[in-house]
Write a structure and sequence with these properties.
295 residues; mainly alpha; 11 helices
């Protein structure tokens, strides 16, 4: 973030969430994070023109069925990757899946020798996930660090970006001061406890409920079950965020606005993330067969 709390892209490691487990892990680890960006802000540009647009202005049951069918269609396109000769760049994969450049973060491709690994972050297509991800990066993250500024993070920020953030005392109260503004920490803590924290929690719960309901229907999809990377994504995010440290924080001094149930659910957090691995030299796999669509 800049001195005013906004985020700009820079040549640094930026923490963004492209899956629900990733977002939940970010939520738990907010206090340790320096620079974040809202991936959904870019992803939503043109998402309505893709074959995987999910309209959330529908009754709940209709929405869930429509979303599940949409993700099943995506799963069958991902399933075809093993059989369809493609260049292994993200642009080639996006073109095959019918995604625009704005949706490039939904596809990750790595190759080691002849082994190709493709991961598709399908949670990004769910509106409730994008809403929660935007709120975390654009509102919760900023409010948290204005309420609880960390001297070591501020020192890293100032050193890396030439910032002027500092923690000061004003009328006996702790403030975070930038070049252009002062943020009274007590006021932001109150706002975090009263408004921002509960709003973040509600968005996470709503995203979990929607993605969980979609996942249940997709359990009838052969293609999706074959490709589901839920377990691996949960494990990767737990390791990536070093949640052993965060769980210690939970026991010792967990902030009142957080929801311990959400933290515990990281091990079972639903996600529509898919993955496929294949040998590029044996891409025409004779055992491959198209999967039937769910109804």
């Amino acid at each position: 973030m800049r001195d005013d709390g906004t985020v700009e892209h820079a040549e640094v490691a930026i923490n963004m969430a492209t899956s629900l487990p990733g977002l939940l892990a970010n939520y738990v680890s907010t206090r340790h994070m320096l620079v974040v960006t809202a991936e959904s802000a870019l992803f939503e540009k043109g998402v309505g023109d893709t074959p995987y647009f999910i309209d959330d202005a529908q009754p709940h049951e209709t929405y869930i069925k429509h979303a599940a069918n949409t993700m099943d269609r995506l799963a069958r396109k991902v399933d075809e990757i093993r059989q369809t000769p493609l260049g292994m760049g993200t642009a080639d994969l996006n073109a095959h899946l019918g995604l625009s450049d704005a949706q490039r973060s939904a596809v990750q491709c790595t190759r080691h020798n002849d082994e190709v690994y493709v991961k598709v972050f399908a949670d990004l297509f769910v509106p409730e996930f994008r809403e929660a991800e935007r709120y975390w990066a654009g509102t919760f993250f900023r409010a948290y660090h204005w309420a609880y500024p960390d001297a070591s993070l501020i020192e890293k920020w100032n050193t890396r970006f030439g910032g002027s953030l500092e923690i000061v005392e004003k009328a006996g109260k702790r403030c975070l001061r930038s070049r252009d503004a002062e943020y009274l920490c007590d006021e932001w803590e109150e706002r975090l406890l009263r408004e921002v924290g509960p709003a973040m929690r509600d968005r996470l719960h709503r995203a979990m409920e929607r993605i969980g309901a979609i996942f249940e229907i997709l359990e009838e999809s052969d293609a999706f079950l074959r490709l589901s990377g839920a377990e691996g994504e949960r494990r990767a995010q737990s390791v990536k965020r070093n949640l052993e440290v965060s769980m210690e924080d939970l026991v010792n001094s967990f902030d009142a606005f957080r929801d311990p149930v959400l933290v515990q659910r990281l091990s079972t957090c639903p996600t529509l993330t898919m993955e496929v691995m294949f040998d590029a030299e044996k891409q025409h796999d004779v055992s491959w067969r198209p999967a039937a669509a769910i109804v």
